Amino acid sequence: MSDYLDPANEELLKDFYVEAELQVEALESNILVLENNPGDSDAVDEVFRAAHTLKGAAATVQMNELADFTHLVEDALDVIRSGGVSLESETVDLLLQSVDVIKSMLDARSRGGVYQQNIDGLCAELKMAMQLAEEEGSHEAGFPEAADAPSGTGIESAGATDSDANGADPGSGPGAGTNAANAGQTAAAGTLSEYDALELREAATAGETVFQIDVHFNRDNPMNTVGGIQVFAALKKRGRVLRTLPEFEALYEDNFFPTVTYFVASAEDAPSLQTAAEIPDVTTGVSVQALDQTGQSGAAQTAQSAPDTPAATTASSAGAASEAGPAAAPGEPAAAPGESPEPPTESQSAADTNAGPETAGEVTRGGGKNGTELPDSLERKSSGSVLRVDSKRIDNLLNLVSETVINKAGFNQLVSEFSDALNRFDSADQQLRETLKSLFDSLPSYLEQMHNGTSVKQVRKELLTRFGGLYSAYDEFESGLKTTVTRFRSNAQNLGRITGELQEGVMRIRMVPIAQIFSRFPRLVRDLSRSLGKNIDLEIEGEETELDKSVIEDLLDPLIHCVRNSIDHGVETPSQRHEAGKAERGVVGLKASNEGNMIVIEISDDGRGIDVEKVRGRAIERGVIQAGKTLTDVEAFNLIFEPGFSTASAVTNVSGRGVGLDVVKRQLEKLNGSVSVWSELGAGTRFTIKIPLTLAIIQGLLVRVGKEMYAIPITSVIDSHRIRPGEIKRIDNYEVFNVRDDVVSLLRLNRLFQIETDEEKSYHYVVIVGAGDKKMGLVVDSLIGEEDVVIKPLRDHYTNAPGIAGANITGDGTVCLIIDVGQLLDLGLKHEMEQRKRRETTIR
Amino acid sequence: MKTKQDFPSINERKAEGVKEDGNGYRVLIVDDSMFVTKQISQILTSEGFDVVGIATDGEEGVEKYKELFPNVDVVTMDITMPKMDGVTALEKILEFDKEARVVMISALGKQDLVKKSLLLGAKNYIVKPLDRKKVLERIVMSLKQ
After folding, report:
1. Are the C-beta atoms of A342 and A171 separated by less than 8 Å?
2. CATH architecture of the region A512-692
3. From CA A235, how far away is CA A280, in angstroms rounded?
4. Cβ <8 Å between B108 and A372
5. N or C: which end of chain B has fewer CB within 10 A?
6. What is the reported pTM?
7. Alpha-carbon torsion A16, A17, A21, A22, what sign?
């Protein structure tokens, strides 16, 4: 095979998977756009481009099954596009199915395997669709007998003639024969379609030219069927063989082709390639031409050696000139084994007889692989760690980093200013001491003077003159220090601002638009509503809202659950909607927005809504609540998140098994998020999901237990109280505490974490935390305050410490552990029970 | 391992004025048929080639190549052989020395294996029954590549 980039290169594979994901997404979304608006030529182009890019990428990493299949899809799209045919919904289904296969293939590859399932059926259907589209195109163009029409307007002209030849062939079976015609059509006999030419030109990297090399072979060579490959092997040493006509697979078969065209990207010049391709005894003539900018064979770099036989010349022109149809073909003695025109079950033989050997390769394209394939070493590590970041964000970070550097320089300056100030202080201090010393030394003489009758006034005056400098001894030092401190303050403020922005900037690198997951919903909604016989429009809003990549990945499943729920249980069937006086098309909305450092996602529908009474009834029936309990509507709605709860009377295969919404709730709680529901009977339902922007930084409530400090995620904190020991009561071995009308059981963190502390204090602090439906009071020594807490994961044997989610380094450098509230609730109850039992037995 | 640098390359030999067709080039013949081996050997020695080794199966061929390396300029490799076929032996030799010049010897009907060998990196092939002119031409051609 040709020399590709090393297909086992990990970086290359990572890039490939990222690229592939994007292209698959583009494929899917644009196919859906086409379904609603078949005339959207932008979408057609986009679908086409995506398929093409994907094919190219797959070939680069030698995922042949993917490249082959994508190529087929691409061909189908090409026919659909050039035929100008509107897409039937069956065709859309077919295309979507193909996208699914592509996804599965990628998936299989990403797990180190190769997609194994049989896709012949789908391939055949695709080919059929091509055929239909083509016929339709011809009909529309005014040729009722498409197959017999001399040329089909709206179809590439070379291809049309080709199909003509096939259609007229009496030996062709209706199915297989037409398939062959189609396949041959997309790149007719030795002619490059505009599209293929573009593809080839794109393949050339810097310094390379793409050459078209026509090689004529000597039939008299005893192994004349080897020549095609021999030249291939020779050429691949000089450059990359991008493509051959006939296709490589056909060359590999035991067939003789009088002429083979090679498309080679090479840094070498035409004469050198020509020398490489000329093999005595094997080749009879070689011509090399550079493909010019328009993709046609240009005469710019031509090196022509006289072909030996006139037949070869004919073949050459058929191969090179775009206007030549299969006219040259009958003159070509086709040495292929499948020469007889019937039965053309193998598309290969049909093409051989009809269009000359040049097309044979085209037909088998998408067919198998061959024995010389490189070893399949395409195992990859996860591509999930690849992040695409807007370069502006990186620039912003660089900016901030340079600001920090400047800021640091400022601090350096300040350091020297401070030491200057210190020096000044030292000298002032020195002076002061000296003056004081002389003051004390001179005091006795002054006393004596006073004793001798000098007036106090006189002495005082003298003292002032001599020692008045004492008052201003520190003045110079002080003013200097003041300026320095002011500058220090502003510098520190700047540093605070920069680190804040830096933190935000780094977090923003991890931020991706929620469109990444929203984009999967159009397909989901379409498939689901079709299978349920409902007409549903999906309205997406705020897809540019960004959130942390790690969050976004875990958000998909809960969202899918909610949307499914809305489609299945919410929106009614068209007839029901009609009866209810609503528009027949239901609407499901998906909306994301920012709210502080939380993201709010709403999934709404205009369906039948939730019947509060029914929910209450079901809740009582299932024993979720007691019959006498009064519930507000909101509380009642939220009962649907209880495990095993479903008001759907019939279980459908979409949802309604009562697993789902409770899972949604659990999953969101894992993300420190929450979900609630609001509904109006007959008007619709709205799920509201709130999740923090990121998981790496949380707001934490810092508390002290003994000498240790702990952080409790603020999202789990309900409230906090200062209580006297006497307020702690015991019910059935539990320590509890009354909060208004509620009774909350208490967990002493000092006991749980075995920290020595004085329990006999006049006051305790209780932080009430909740996760899910559980609530508990944590008894701590004191509350320190709220702070942004950067979660650092714990490694090795600490990871299993129950009740601890991670660690955080506080401003003064001490480590504080972050409490995992959910785990603590489970753990605490058990632990407290055991502890108490033990204590009680020791007391007795 | 000895490196090729210790020995003059083909081009250097030419520069020394050695006759282009033949003289002094060292050949390893890998073939299970004594008859064919003899034929090749005779054709080549008559033209001044130096047959430095003969192996009768693929395994031995690979071993001999490694043993002789880098004192071999070209290998003739039969395709159908016991123990290890020629294509596999070719692969092994190329694994060991990717510059190795190997010319395949094939009977008619083995086109697919010839193709495979060429793609793997064989320099050329010769079809049995052997023809003196063809053998010389192909081997010289492979030396020029």
Report:
1. yes
2. 2-Layer Sandwich (3.30)
3. 15
4. no
5. N
6. 0.43
7. negative
- Report which residue type is found at A253: E
Distance CA A740, CA A718 (A): 14
Among the CATH numbers 3.40.50.1820, 3.30.70.1110, 3.40.50.720, 3.30.43.10, which is that of A194-321?
Answer: 3.30.70.1110
Task: Annotate A293-304 with DSSP letters as a single string.
Answer: TTSSB-STT-EE
**CATH number belonging to the domain at A10-140, selected among 1.20.120.160, 1.10.10.10, 1.10.290.10, 1.10.287.3510:** 1.20.120.160
Q: State which residue of chain B sits closest to A231, comparing Cα positions.
A: B118
**How far out from the chain centre does Cα B138 lie?**
10
Token pair listed for B23: 């003289």
DSSP labels, A364-392: HTTS---TTPPP-------STT-----HH
Q: Taking CB atoms and an 8 Å limit, are B119 and A229 in contact across chains?
A: yes
**Digit-coded pLDDT (tens) for A25-53:** 888 888 888 777 777 777 777 787 778 77
CA A496 to CA A791: how far, in whole Å?
20
Whether residue B137 lies within 8 A of chain A, CB to CB, comes out as: yes
Over the stretch A733-761, which tens digit does the pLDDT of each residue have?
778 888 877 888 888 888 878 888 777 77
* Residue type present at position A89: S
**Residue A788 main-chain phi, psi, to 5 deg:** -70, 130
Residue A1 near chain B (CB below 8 Å): yes
Pairing type for strands A674-680 and A684-692 reads antiparallel
| Cβ–Cβ < 8 Å for A654, A567 | yes
Give me the residue label for tokens 């909350």: A744
